[in-house]
Amino acid sequence: MTKVTLADLQDRKARGGKLTMLTAYDYPMAKLIDEAGVDIVLVGDSLGMVVLGYESTTPVTMEEMLHHAKAARRGVKRALLIGDMPFLSFRSSAVEAVKHAARFVQEAGCEAVKVEWKQGIEDTAKAMIDAGIPVMGHVGLTPQTAAAEGGFGLRGKDAASAVRIIGQALALQEVGCLAMVLECIPDLVAQEITRRLRIPTIGIGSGPFCDGQVLVTNDLLGLFDRFTPTFAKRYADLSTMIRHATAAYIRDVQAGQFPGKEHTRTMAVEEFAKLKSDLGSE
Ligand code: KIV
To answer: Residue 181 CA: which ligand 1 atom is closest?
Structure first.
């Protein structure tokens, strides 16, 4: 088990091997995906939707992110652990953003933070990087502002908007970002960005030409069934398994079949007889 480092991401791009990133929000899931060999564990603000039950990611607070990042930290030994800066934690001023990013590193033990694109974010990202906090960028569909920007569809569909996204990715690279998430952009635009950037691109809904891929683990495992993005591949159906297991437990308890002999602890017969005698005749 060799620890994944920031330098490894760059090496992987140079060598041409694909990077894998998945989300985790607690100790058991972080431990399982880390042990399975994923390169990067992201404590994403998708937390808000797939774990906390919010309608979107915007209500997620720093305190909620830190609570879950600390739990994930305890499960991750090998992968790189990245904390996602929630809405408003990096939008008011660079000074506030650095303070919040530092909490991910100092309190939760994250090795880097991720920021979604907004106008001027490159200066904020630079302030974080200058303060010694590695930063991953995120361009294309940026869920924190998607509703205000016309919804959750594909970004960069026409040449003009693709040029804008390429410019955003280059600006974030220029200030020293370590990698770039490309969300929901056409495959050839993602390929063009991947070709132009020195740092690795990690795609979600952006086709196969990125340097790596990321999915929300709850989508991959079929653990979030309010909706599944069309770009997500479901590798398991844990929701159905959980429903079946729960129904079986309820049936067993109601039928007196759980707990069985193998789940039951007993007292020596003579000791129980003594107990009865000590208790008297009631
Ligand atoms: O919040 C999240 O999980 C993310 C990934 C989907 C990239 O930002």
So the answer is: 7
Q: What local confidence, expressed as pLDDT, does residue 218 receive?
A: 97
Q: What does each C-alpha distance from 216 to 29, 65, 106, 196 come to in angstroms?
A: 12, 16, 25, 26
Q: Is 5 helix (H, G, I), strand (E, B) or coil?
A: coil
Q: Which atom of ligand 1 is nearest to the CA of 202?
A: 7
Whether residue 230 contacts residue 32, with contact meaning beta carbons closer than 8 Å, is answered with no
Closest Cα to atom 8 of ligand 1: 44
Residue 282 has pLDDT above 90, yes or no: no
User: Average pLDDT of 12-25?
Assistant: 96
> What does residue 153 show for φ and ψ, rounded to 5 degrees?
-80, -175
> Phi, psi (5° rounding) for residue 68?
-80, -35
pLDDT category at 151 given cuts 50, 70, 90 is: confident
Query: What predicted TM-score, i.e. pTM, was given to this entire model?
Result: 0.95
| Residue nearest (by alpha carbon) to ligand 1 atom 3 | 44
* Residues 210, 182 contacting (CB under 8 angstroms): yes
The span from the CA of 224 to the CA of 88, in Å, is 25
